[in-house]
Amino acid sequence: MSRRTISHETGAIYEFTPELEPIATVESGAQLTVETRDSLDGAIQSESDVIESVPAEVNAATGPIEVEGAEPGDVLRVDIDDIRLTEDRGRVISIEGFGLLDGHEGIEAPRSRITPVESDGVGVGDGNGERAGTSDATLSIEGIDADVPVEPLIGTIGIATESESHTTLVPHNHGGNLDTTDLCAGNSVYFPVFQAGAMLAMGDCKAAMADGEMCGTGAEIGTAIDVTVAVLSDPEIELERPLIETPEAWKPVASADTLEAACERATRDAIELLAAEHEVDTTDAYLFASLVGDLEISQVVDPLVTVRNAVPKAYLSAPF
Amino acid sequence: MSRRTISHETGAIYEFTPELEPIATVESGAQLTVETRDSLDGAIQSESDVIESVPAEVNAATGPIEVEGAEPGDVLRVDIDDIRLTEDRGRVISIEGFGLLDGHEGIEAPRSRITPVESDGVGVGDGNGERAGTSDATLSIEGIDADVPVEPLIGTIGIATESESHTTLVPHNHGGNLDTTDLCAGNSVYFPVFQAGAMLAMGDCKAAMADGEMCGTGAEIGTAIDVTVAVLSDPEIELERPLIETPEAWKPVASADTLEAACERATRDAIELLAAEHEVDTTDAYLFASLVGDLEISQVVDPLVTVRNAVPKAYLSAPF
Fold first, then answer.
1. What is d(CA A171, CA A157) in angstroms, rounded to the nearest whole number?
2. pLDDT value for B142
3. Which of A16, A161, A168, B195 is most deeply packed, by most CB within 10 A?
4. In-domain check, residue A320
5. Residue B141 and residue A208: Cβ atoms within 8 Å?
């Protein structure tokens, strides 16, 4: 099966709602290449380009992509096969009114820094349709003498919501602006399907980002994302929120107004999976999770914040 | 130099204050074995032993240990050389009024579960003074069929405070109940010295604990901790809070009322280290940290919560 390419030039959304019109329709099992532009729609091309306040439209998500056969109550599995950079530079910025240290002494906003990407000394993403591999690529930030490994991730990925509307700046149960380092090549993310066709969209990729995304961005960059989508009908568990699978762990992902509330939700999801697997009550699963299920910070800025609870596969087989 | 043993039977504290009377005095560079009892002072020996509410005295910290020559403004370095279990079982518990999911539906408190420890099928810590190695040891939780690797850590470690008093239940700038998985063998922790002699104390060890310590405990257990202590005079940086060194990273550790506030403090510390190293202003260090400095959760329950910011050594040489 050849990959079908879906470009952000065909369509992109800035809001996840219950009713989304697809720009493409694919079968369950389809392999896709989803092209995305940088989260700031190309507004930052040099350090003199700055963003004074959070734009009304940010984090363009290429799509929506209708997946045939997906019905409410199903689960949509998205395998992230590869993420290739399609620009030779990203950008990391501060914006007034945004970010963990907004308003702190010595923290200036707006500021923009360009992050050139190199692979064996060759610029990545030359614009001719050929894209260098990123496995050995590094980026730097102008003014700092350090090479940072390129580890691309998807910032915003989600589906049509159950009833609410969320801009692509906000993460919630439909996914959205999760800004989670585990949304990288080799991992899968599972969503509860709320609407017929699921209506998948993604964008807002980073060439690198730390857990926390403290200033409010990673190294924002255009990409081509290879994904495989699959509908899981009649799943054994009722999924309420996104769930990430890595080679080592299952990670329920929860967003909320505070990190504490997000921790509660992610832990609750984790212990329900552990309780079902080990046939114990939720209290015993809670005690067990306190020994094995690491709480991890995804992001602290979006303005809902996101946390995941990493349960090693040694203690949890496939929940579906 | 032979190791000097300091036992919890000689002295232990339940509160870190500015004025602490030492039970031992050692030189800078001393190698010590610090014996600790479990955080609940042996109250839980079977599942029928439960704790109805958080005890007034918990997390006995063996010490205080006066380190000769330590003066306010210095830094105390504590290398954690080894942590050996001295019991063949730990315990993980829920307590009413404590823990991330306290009061949630289906979460019962009090409950106690015993966590037997095995090493190649042999019980660890036979009470005869011989202690099995823990590198290949596992523990289990009664009722759940899973072996969990034994990865011992120090829950409570700290020094005399600047001016406040904190029980050993609470973490703050003096250390205290940090409940941080990185407080394990092979790592070092640095404290700002607030009082002459530093007055180091430690206890509250766990045979295993997840990042978060969601139920409020790990597998609480008695241990013998090998440490090396050293006074760093006239340090190049002014340390305000604990700093952990692992083989890969420097990790400022911050505690606060909320995870958000703790994230702000740990990030602030990290970017000040990065700014000094790379000779850039704090804003550029902030943007750089957002690409490389992972926020990590230590614990969410104590009742101040603790977070660390992990800056890879690739970007930060020794700050002292």
1. 9
2. 82
3. A16
4. no
5. no
- Has residue A122 been placed in a domain? yes
Nearest chain A Cα to B285, which residue? A144
Q: Rounded mean pLDDT of A207-234?
A: 98
Shortest alpha-carbon distance between residue B92 and chain A (Å): 6
Domain assignment present for residue B238? The answer is no
Task: Give the percent of chain A with pLDDT over 70.
Answer: 95
**Domain check: are B159 and B15 in the same one?**
yes
Predicted confidence (pLDDT) per residue in B21-74, tens digit: 999 999 999 999 999 999 999 999 999 999 999 999 999 999 999 999 999 999
Both A178 and A285 in one domain: the answer is no
**B88 found inside a domain:** yes
Same domain, residue pair A257 and A148: no
pLDDT for A57: 97
Q: How far apart are the CA of A117 and the nearest CA of chain B, in angstroms?
A: 13
Last residue of a domain, one of B232, B265, B284: B232
User: Rounded to a whole number, what is the distance in Å from the CA of B192 to chain A's nearest CA?
Assistant: 23
Q: Which of B92, B309, B314 sits opposite A287 (nearest CB)?
A: B92
Together in a domain, B282 and B203 = no
Element (H, E) at A295: strand A294-302
Q: What is the pLDDT of residues B98-157, one digit of tens each?
A: 999 999 999 999 999 999 999 865 666 544 333 444 568 999 998 898 999 999 999 999
Number of domains in chain A: 2
Interface test with A, best of B96, B153, B286, B315 (most A CBs within 10 A): B286
Q: Which of B82, B190, B309, B231 is nearest to A101 (CA)?
A: B309
Q: Do residues B195 and B272 both lie within one domain?
A: no
Residue B165 burial (CB count, 10 A)? 12
Contact call for B268 and A104, based on CB within 8 A: yes
Pair A266, B212: CB distance under 8 Å? no
A to B CB pairs, distance under 8 Å: 214
User: Hey, how many other C-beta atoms are within 10 angstroms of the C-beta on B261?
Assistant: 15
Domain range holding A176?
Answer: 4-232
Kindly report the backbone phi and psi dihedral angles of residue B10, in degrees, each rounded to the nearest multiple of 5, phi listed first: -75, -35
d(C-alpha A269, C-alpha B43), whole Å: 31
Last residue of a domain, one of A232, A251, A277: A232
Q: What are phi and psi of B81, to 5 degrees?
A: -85, -40
Q: Are residues A270 and A294 in the same domain?
A: yes
CATH number for the domain spanning B310: value is 3.10.28.20
pLDDT band with cut points at 50, 70 and 90 for residue A187? very high
- Of the residues B273, B287, B301, B317, the best mutation for testing chain A's interface (the one with the most A CB atoms within 10 Å of its CB) is B287
Q: Is A296 close to B291, i.e. CB distance below 8 A?
A: no
Do A92 and B290 count as a contact with CB atoms less than 8 A apart?
A: yes
B258 is written with which tokens? 């909320």
The single-letter code of the amino acid at A71 is E
